Amino acid sequence: MGLACGLWLLTGIYMVRVDEQAVVRRFGGVIADHVPPGLHLGLPWGIDRVDRLKVREQKRLNVGFEFTDATLGRPGNTAYSEFFTGDQNLINIELLVQYTIRDPRSYLFAAANVEDVLRQAAEAAVTNSVAPRPVDTLLTTGKLAVQGELRRRLQQSSDDYGLGVIITSVNIQAVTPPLKVADAFREVASAREDRDRIIQEAHSYANATIPAAQGEGAKLHEEAIAYHDQKLLQARGDAERFVQAYDAYRRSPDVSSTRLYLETVEQIMPRLKIISLDRNGGHTPIDLNLLPRVNQAKTDNPGSTALPGAGAPPGALPGNVGSSSNSTGTASSSSMNMYSPGAGTNDSPGTNGSGGTGVNALIPPPAVAGANATPQP
């Protein structure tokens, strides 16, 4: 009997571990609710009752699935995981709630089963959070926002119920459509991804094309301005040269006309084809010294302009020139019909003989001395 009494008295000694806190009840009433870790002495069993709780342990609560079913690969009970979204669609949501014990006394006596109360509070929070949102948001970008809102709602509910727990995290494990419409949801998600991809490609193309087009437009604009300035300056220069030429012509009409005529002939002569015809069987000499005379003047003095009548006797003027010879008693003549400003046609080939040579050329006709040469006034 004494040994039994000793053993009974020893039941009043209890140990609280490092990660635990104890709640001591005596005859059913709580006398200590935060007993720290260590060795403690109380009254024997039947009088005192000690409840030890691991306050530092992270407890887990699953909503919408069961750990055993997920481990064994069996489909879980989805009766409590389907929720209505804001656009009247059904969606399956699986939650994993983690919490710790903040108040051991409240955790022990606020509810008979704290996990069941937390599970129901979590389902209510999911319903309130999912109801205003469309299904597309929940399946794509709205997951993180929903998780934060669920944690706040669940913490508020546990505080209202006095459960004595702290909700550390709420993780949405999966958001999936019901099995019967899963294929349709996947097609919609794939189409949405294609749409976003095409939009991004369009933006990339626009970002690459618009700067190139702007650069090309700026280049064309600068080229147009340069062309405009070039043509404007060229037109002004031409106008100034014309005014200067007109002033020179007004001061000296004859000299200016002759100079312009010679400059024009210098440009035209290299492109002319000259044909010489001998009508007297080659017995009449042809004076072609006039043709190289312009080129010879340019060669001897580059940049200079041959004056009309160069190499001709004094007093001879530009005009129609005739040359004749009576060496054998038979008059023969050769004449050159040429064009000069203000000059008419005074001679014709063969006027004093039976044969002659005619040369038609647009060259300045200096007078050639001869028996029939007729000076022009």
Element layout with pairings:
Layout: H1 2-10, E1 13-16, E2 20-26, E3 29-35, E4 38-41, E5 48-54, E6 59-63, H2 67-72, E7 82-84, E8 90-101, H3 104-109, H4 114-130, H5 135-139, H6 143-161, E9 165-176, H7 182-251, H8 253-268, E10 277-278, H9 290-300, E11 321-325, E12 332-338, E13 356-361
Parallel strand pairs: 12-13
Antiparallel strand pairs: 1-4, 2-3, 2-5, 6-8, 7-8, 8-9, 10-13, 11-12
Helix pairs in contact: 4-6, 7-8
What descriptors fit this protein?
377 residues; alpha+beta; Tetrahydropterin Synthase, Chain A; 4-stranded antiparallel β-sheet; 4-stranded mixed β-sheet; 9 helices; disordered C terminus
Q: What form results from the Cα inertia axes? A: rod-shaped
Give the class from helix and strand content and strand pairing: alpha+beta
Give me the CATH fold name of the domain at 59-176.
Tetrahydropterin Synthase, Chain A
Tell me the number of strands.
13
CATH class of the domain at 59-176: Alpha Beta
For the record, give the distance between the C-alpha atoms at the N and C termini, rounded to a whole number. 176 Å
Give the integer mean of the pLDDT values. Answer: 74
Q: Could you describe the largest sheet, including whether it forms a barrel?
A: 4 strands, antiparallel
| Helix and strand run | HEEEEEEHEEHHHHEHHEHEEE
The CATH fourth-level homologous superfamily of the domain at 59-176: Band 7 domain
Q: What portion of residues is helical?
A: 40-55%
The CATH architecture category of the domain at 59-176 equals 2-Layer Sandwich
Tally of helical segments: 9
